[in-house]
Design a protein that fits this description.
This protein is an alpha+beta fold and 657 residues long. It is built from ten helices and 30 strands.
Length: 657
């Protein structure tokens, strides 16, 4: 068998118990949701009112039977939820205490089911003798008849037990517990015949038996919710003298139904019992296989220090069980140590990797194993949850308590090696020590945006770092890469874009150098200002102001733009006199929007090929040399290029003394 996993049988057992308990978990979740729904759903209020535990109006009703049933369903669902959780987590994560508790619960359920089955089979007659007197007492003390449910009835509403008896007798076509005579001495039942009149005679004044013991369904409907109270008079003679009444008692009726479905009941019970037994056995088997105590997933070791780790077990090994350590180094090498203790006298970087404590049998089959990662990187000491990214909007509160700058709970280390944990805030190459060890702000601002470094410092000088980045958006913020010096030719159309951005709704206002300017399409409300037919009067500073509402109050931010208006370039050739004994500065007069890129080339250049570039600035410094004699000439070309095209300007230079 290859390394890295348990035997096929163990994997199968884990899979079986996970599947079984996932089903338990889902059923428990469904029952829990159903019980809570019944408790809180307002649409069930009317049903709760007609099935109170006590129908006496002088007694506080408290919970209804429907609510009691909902509570029972919630408790049952909670138990299944807990059992499913313990089974799944115990098997998947190999948590021994979970498996032990799970096995105990399943064992109790199995014993309870077996005890109930034995009692019912061995003492079936005894069961009848025990249960039927109690059922008869319930009939005698609680039965009230169904007529209180009729709309407009002056009779009080019957209790839930009384309604249940009518429901059972009507739907299962039975009468009483043993027979119709169980209703002879009822205490709460008003037996008055609602259809009686003097012409019928005194024998028809009172009922002797419940009308639901009569064959109502054949004449009218099988729907209990639609009992035809106004038509029951035709079968009232049955309730008076027992004509065509159901003779079989409900206990015998239920027993006969159970006998009819006995085969399916036995098969279902056996299947459930087998599933529970398998789950119980698998849980015990997994418990027995978990021999090694749980280890921390990571261990931190200083370079050059001694490392020792004992593979602790929770029971003595048998003569056919063996313990060993396997080391997988980061360079791919594997070392096997046949001992319970892993000892590295002087830890080096090549020792970093995975250490596995393994218990095998005589055939080499893995019975149990635990592993951890050995590292000398101080960054592994920091809680990994600190690292990451988050974004928020301005003026909100953030409290990332889970991003604590502290030790990782999953790593084993020596506390004496740690000097401190702290957070450094890094923004614009400035590092600021924070007072708190977790990220927390009230009314966060743009200045809080940046990198937060959790730094662990060791006494030997080593440092580990994990980084969290906080992005603050929403409110106004200046965009550094937007052009603020804009060039435009006369008669051009120009759009000034505000160099401020906001993800939240804000109000933009442009303050112009001359309020009498014409042909400006928008002054407020947009993040741009469009000017048509640009002229010299449009030149100057424009201020873009952004506020968080339209009355210029609240948070405000401003930024300035400069519009430089120039005449269209006309002269392509320029003649200049240059003194030959000093440096001379020549400026290219080509402008554009956006700002063009400049190239100075030697000669009168019309088409760019592979010429040497003399300068890439708007200015070019002429340094005369020995070849530049009095009245000699030199020609240079300035080429300006942007996304709107290319223009050139040729300078003819004549040197003078």
């Amino acid at each position: 068998m290859g390394h890295g996993g348990m035997g096929c049988g163990m994997k199968t057992m884990r899979f079986v118990i996970v599947v079984f308990n996932l089903v338990f978990f889902l059923i428990g979740l469904a029952l829990l949701a159903l019980g809570i729904y019944v408790m809180v759903d307002p649409s069930l209020k009317k049903i709760k009112e007609i099935v109170p535990i006590n129908s006496n109006p002088g007694v506080d009703k408290g919970l209804s039977y429907l609510e009691v049933m909902a509570i029972v369903i919630i408790i049952l669902g909670s138990i299944l939820l807990i059992v499913g959780f313990l089974g799944c987590c115990g098997a998947m994560k190999q948590v021994k205490i979970f498996l032990i508790i799970y096995a105990i619960i399943i064992g109790i359920i199995i014993l309870f089911e077996i005890a109930i089955t034995i009692y019912f089979v061995a003492f079936k007659s005894k069961f009848r003798e025990t249960i039927t007197p109690k059922l008869k007492d319930a009939v005698r003390n609680t039965y009230e008849g169904p007529f209180g449910l009729q709309a407009g009835s002056k009779l009080r509403k019957p209790s839930a037990i009384s309604v249940a008896w009518d429901f059972i007798m009507y739907n299962f076509k039975c009468c009483g517990v043993d027979n119709k005579f169980d209703f002879n001495n009822t205490k709460e039942w008003n037996k008055t015949n609602p259809w009686w009149n003097s012409t019928m005679g005194n024998d028809f004044e009172k009922f002797q038996y419940p009308i639901t013991c009569c064959n109502i369904g054949n004449a009218f409907t099988e729907d209990w919710n639609n009992l035809p109270y106004d038509k029951l008079e035709t079968v009232a003679v049955c309730a008076v003298n027992g004509t065509n009444i159901y003779e079989e008692g409900c206990y015998d009726k239920f027993m006969s139904l159970i006998d009819t479905a006995k085969t399916w009941i036995i098969v279902g019970a056996v299947i459930i019992l087998v599933i529970e037994l398998i789950a119980f056995i698998v849980a015990l088997a997994l418990c027995c296989q978990l021999i090694i105590w749980k280890l921390k997933p990571k261990h931190f070791v200083h370079i050059g220090s001694r490392f020792e780790q004992n593979c602790e077990i929770n029971r003595p090994l048998t003569s056919d069980e063996y313990i060993s350590w396997i080391l997988y180094n980061h360079d791919g090498q594997m070392n096997v140590i046949n001992a319970a203790n892993l000892i590295i006298d002087s830890f080096v970087i090549n020792n970093e990797g995975i250490a596995i404590c393994q218990i095998t049998d005589k055939d080499g089959i893995i019975i149990d194993e635990k592993y951890f990662f050995i590292t000398s990187d101080p960054t592994e000491l920091i809680d990994y949850r600190f690292e990451g990214y988050d974004q928020t909007v301005i003026d909100t509160d953030i409290d990332h308590t889970e991003k604590n700058c502290g030790p990782d709970e999953n790593i084993a280390y020596t506390k004496e090696d740690i000097a401190d944990f702290h957070i450094d805030f890094v923004q614009h190459y400035e590092r600021i020590r924070q007072h708190s060890n977790h990220i927390q702000f009230q009314n966060v601002k743009h200045e809080n945006e940046g990198y937060y470094e959790c730094v662990v410092r060791l006494h030997n000088g080593l440092v580990g770092v994990r980084v969290f980045f906080l992005s603050v958006g929403g409110g106004p913020r200046e965009i550094s890469n937007r052009e603020k010096h804009i060039y435009s030719e006369i008669n051009d159309t120009i759009t000034l874009l505000c160099p401020i951005f906001s993800a939240l709704p804000v109000w933009f206002t442009f303050l112009v150098p001359n309020n009498s300017l014409e042909d400006i399409s928008s002054l407020t409300g947009y993040d741009y200002l469009r000017i048509k037919h640009v002229s010299n009067i449009h030149s100057g500073n424009y201020t873009c102001r952004v506020t968080t509402n339209d009355d210029n109050e609240g948070y405000s931010l401003t930024s300035n733009l400069y519009l430089d208006v120039y005449k269209p370039y006309k002269s392509e050739y320029v003649f200049l006199l240059i003194k030959k004994d000093i440096e001379n500065l020549i400026r290219c007069s080509l402008n554009g929007n956006p700002m063009p890129n400049y190239q100075w080339l030697l000669g009168d250049i019309k088409v760019l090929t592979n010429e040497e570039i003399l300068s890439d600035k708007v200015d070019y410094i002429i340094i005369p040399n020995e070849n530049d004699s009095f009245e000699s000439n030199r020609t240079v070309t300035c080429i300006a290029k942007n996304n709107r095209g290319i223009k050139r300007q040729v300078f003819i230079l004549q040197f003078i003394n």
